[in-house]
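REVIEWER CHECKLIST
Item 1: Sequence provided? yes
Item 2: Single chain? yes
Item 3: Sequence as submitted:
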Amino acid sequence: MSKEKLVVLKEANIKNNCPECFHNELSVTFYQKQKFGKFIHKTTNEVSSDIKCQRCQSIIYPVNWTDDIERSFNYYQKLAVPEKTSVKFTSLFYIVVLVLIALVATAVYLFTQKII
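Item 4: Structure as written out by the authors:
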């Protein structure tokens, strides 16, 4: 079972009017998905985003975007550069690999010495 986590890539305040409450302060946040397992830590290339009003705390969906909000979003989307897709192995993975190598080496040694 792997756990998924959204890591913040870029967060910015934009000075556009909220379509819900007409307040002049929105924040746009870009996230990158990362998966954590017992043996690996994987960074994916999935990037998600949301725009939230600072006053009414409502999420502004793309259906309600004005042209100004869309231009600001596209600008900050270019600035949010995701990390490269990668797979990192945990220390538990390396321990299991070393134990398996030791078991195979022991079996080969015992077989070549005609003990088995």
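Item 5: Key structural point noted by reviewer: The helical segments are 67-79, 91-112.
Item 6: Recommendation: ____
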